Amino acid sequence: QVQLVESGGGLVLPGGSLRLSCAASGFTIYAMGWYRQVPGKQRELVADISSGGSTHYGSSAKGRFTISRDNAKNTMYLQMNSLRPEDTADYYCNAGGAYWRGSTYSAGDYWGQGTQVTVSS
pLDDT at residue 1 above 90? Predict the structure, then answer.
């Protein structure tokens, strides 16, 4: 069963830090990424990372957030520093990957259930 499980969200003061985790299971993972969404707005890319560790950041994350992954643990992380109220959103883990079930091969783009981050005093 393909699963992406996020954790680490919560309430933090402006200027504070949080570390999100995304644990993947059930498939071979390729690129991974973090997205966020505020109600009424489109989901936006925060950062992504290739299987080889190459990273790319959205404009809102540059200089404050760091994406990383541990391929041995099939886990991706997002270290968020200097958080601002405008970072408040639901954060989603995304992964491209594939798996075999018997003789059937499936590939696709998978999403976690999201974890809420609230930055407020």
Answer: no
> By the 8 A CB rule, do 53 and 35 touch?
no
Across 1-103, the runs of DSSP E, i.e. the strands, are 3-7, 10-12, 18-25, 28-37, 44-49, 55-57, 65-70, 75-80, 89-101
* pLDDT tens track for 55-102: 999 999 999 999 999 999 999 999 999 999 999 999 999 999 988 889
Nearest to 15 by CA among 81, 109, 94: 81
Q: How far is CA 93 from CA 15, 80, 111, 115, 121, in A?
A: 23, 14, 6, 9, 26
CA atoms within 13 A on the CB side of 64: 16
pLDDT at 22: 97
Average pLDDT over residues 97-113: 91
CA pair distance 22, 20, nearest whole angstrom: 7
Strand, helix or coil for residue 87? helix
